[in-house]
Amino acid sequence: MRLLLLVLIFALPFTHAFLFDATRGDFNEFQEDYVPGEKISGRYDSISGFPSRIDFTILDPSKAIVYQQHRHDGFFNVTAEKFGTFTFQFHAMQAFRAQRISFILYEKGIEEKTRTGIKTDSEMDKSLTEVAKDMDHILTMQSSIRVKERKRREASSILRSRLVLWAVFQLVIVVGVFVYHARYFSKLFKKRRQGV
């Protein structure tokens, strides 16, 4: 599943792709220039390590927040309204262990407003959106599999601990019975010797 996800990610057209390690308290920033009307779209994923919440923020050239979300992975799609350098910030607030983050910016697309709404300049943008939705579905399935696997491991660990406790309990019973019989037979032999 992870291999398929990486193939899908790196098979897509993109302007920039980043791979970095995030630990608790880290701030990672990436910048890209946009003009008004350009689409800012992409995604970030936790591909290794223990997934935990990442605070993801997009700042416009005036450092105003234009987009924000708090997840360990996600897809974003906004439109630039100003000319200049946009900043993409990652803040690992709850990462107790280092986790590797994949961050991809898709190719830019200009949007033009028409009477019928918003129309993109190419069919590629539509296909990118569809593929991104499919990737979101894949990531949701992957997260579900991780949760199920974690629950299975926890259940297995609980079962193992119960089996160990049961084995210790049985061992205590066996040792107790053995000690009781040993004392009984030792008293019996003493009586016989004294009788003889």
UniProtKB/TrEMBL annotation:
Keywords: Membrane, Signal, Transmembrane, Transmembrane helix. It is found in: Membrane. It holds the Pfam family EMP24_GP25L. Its main location: membrane. Residues 1-17 form the signal peptide. One of its GO terms (cellular component) is membrane. Residues 17-190 form the GOLD domain. InterPro entries: Emp24-like, GOLD_dom. It comes from the Eukaryota. The chain crosses the membrane at residues 163-182. It is a single-pass type I membrane protein. The keyword Transmembrane applies. PANTHER family: TRANSMEMBRANE EMP24 DOMAIN-CONTAINING PROTEIN. Belongs to the EMP24/GP25L family. This is GOLD domain-containing protein. It comes from Streblomastix strix.
